[in-house]
C-alpha cells in the first residue's frame, strides 16, 4: 500500500475516533411533550422548557407586556383532534402556537395558526384564532423549570402554565358531554336502541358524572328487563342511596344478592365473597335509614 493511502486511512480513523469521543451536552431547554386523552379528544402540547438558573424570570428574563413564546427556542405548540373551547372560545381541531403576553395583573393567552415561529419574532396578530385574559396566581411551590400540565376535570381539563412562583390556568372544554347526552336522549331514552351493553355504559356514565338520577333510574330498570344483572341493581341501589331513598336502595340491594345467587355456578368460588360484600352494602344503608328515622 502506498504511503499516501496509508496516511489518508490514518487520518480518517483519527477523525472518526475524535468525533465519537466528543461529550454530548444536554440542552439548556429540553423538549417537553404532553399527550393526554381528554374525554373524546386527544390533546398534545410540545414545548421547550427553560430553567430559571438563579435569574429573575418574569419582568426581566421574560419582559412584561411583550409577546412570549411560552417556552424557549421554537414556539410552544398545542394540538387537538376535535373542535374544543379554550378560554371559553370555540376553536377548530388543529395545531396552533400557544403564545402569551405576561403582565403583573393579567396575562393574554393567544392561539395563532403560525406554528413555525422561532421565539415570537415573526408573530403576526392577523393569524390569531383566539385571545383571552387570565389572571396570574402566586404559587407556594417554586418551579425551577417552565412547566405545563393538564389537570383532568371529567371529560374536560384545566391547562396550567407555571414558572418561578407564578402560575396561570385556562379551561380546555371538549364536546364529550354534549355528544353523549344527545346520544342518550335521542337513542336510548326514546327506545331507538335497546341494547344492554349500551345502556350499561350510559348508566355508568350518568352515575359517575352524578347527572340526572331520574334518567339513570329509568335506564337501569330498562337494562334489567334486557338482562337481569347485579350490576344494574348495584347502580340502582347506589342511585337511590345518593338521593336518600333508603327503602328503595335496600330493595335494590336485596335484588342484587338474589340475582347473584341465581347466576352462580356450582364451582363459583367468588359467590361467598360477593354476598358478604352485598351484605355490607345492606348494613350501611340500613344504618343510614335508621339515623334518618331517629
UniProtKB/TrEMBL annotation:
Signal peptide location: 1-19
Gene3D superfamilies the UniProt entry points to: Tetratricopeptide repeat domain
Keyword Transmembrane helix: no
Keyword Zinc: no
InterPro entries: DUF2911, TPR-like_helical_dom_sf
Superkingdom of this protein's organism: Bacteria
Key words of the record: Signal
One Pfam family hit: DUF2911
Name this polypeptide is given: DUF2911 domain-containing protein
Organism (species): Croceivirga thetidis
Amino acid at each position: 500500500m502506498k504511503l499516501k493511502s496509508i496516511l489518508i486511512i490514518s487520518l480518517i480513523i483519527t477523525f472518526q475516533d475524535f468525533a465519537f469521543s466528543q461529550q454530548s451536552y444536554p440542552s439548556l431547554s429540553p423538549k417537553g411533550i404532553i399527550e393526554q386523552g381528554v374525554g373524546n379528544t386527544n390533546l398534545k402540547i410540545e414545548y421547550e422548557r427553560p430553567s430559571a438558573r438563579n435569574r429573575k424570570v418574569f419582568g426581566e428574563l421574560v419582559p412584561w407586556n411583550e409577546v412570549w413564546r411560552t417556552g424557549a427556542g421554537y414556539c410552544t405548540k398545542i394540538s387537538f383532534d376535535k373542535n374544543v373551547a379554550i378560554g371559553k372560545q370555540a376553536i377548530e381541531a388543529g395545531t396552533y402556537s400557544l403564545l402569551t403576553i405576561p403582565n403583573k395583573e393579567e396575562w393574554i393567552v393567544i392561539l395563532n395558526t403560525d406554528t413555525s415561529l422561532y421565539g415570537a419574532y415573526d408573530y403576526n396578530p392577523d393569524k390569531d384564532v383566539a385571545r383571552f385574559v387570565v389572571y396570574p396566581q402566586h404559587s407556594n411551590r417554586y418551579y425551577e423549570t417552565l412547566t405545563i400540565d393538564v389537570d383532568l376535570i371529567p371529560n374536560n381539563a384545566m391547562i396550567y402554565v407555571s414558572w418561578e412562583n407564578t402560575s396561570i390556568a385556562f379551561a380546555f372544554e371538549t364536546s364529550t358531554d354534549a355528544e353523549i347526552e344527545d346520544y342518550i336522549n335521542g337513542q336510548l331514552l326514546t327506545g331507538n336502541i335497546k341494547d344492554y351493553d349500551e345502556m350499561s355504559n350510559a348508566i355508568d356514565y350518568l352515575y359517575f358524572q352524578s347527572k340526572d338520577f331520574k334518567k339513570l333510574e329509568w335506564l337501569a330498570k330498562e337494562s334489567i328487563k334486557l338482562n337481569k344483572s347485579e350490576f344494574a341493581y348495584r347502580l340502582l341501589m347506589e342511585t337511590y342511596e345518593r338521593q336518600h331513598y333508603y327503602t328503595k336502595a335496600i330493595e335494590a340491594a336485596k335484588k342484587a344478592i338474589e340475582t347473584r345467587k341465581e347466576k352462580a355456578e356450582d364451582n363459583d368460588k367468588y359467590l361467598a365473597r360477593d354476598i358478604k360484600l352485598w351484605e355490607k352494602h345492606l348494613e350501611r344503608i340500613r344504618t343510614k335509614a335508621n339515623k334518618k328515622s331517629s
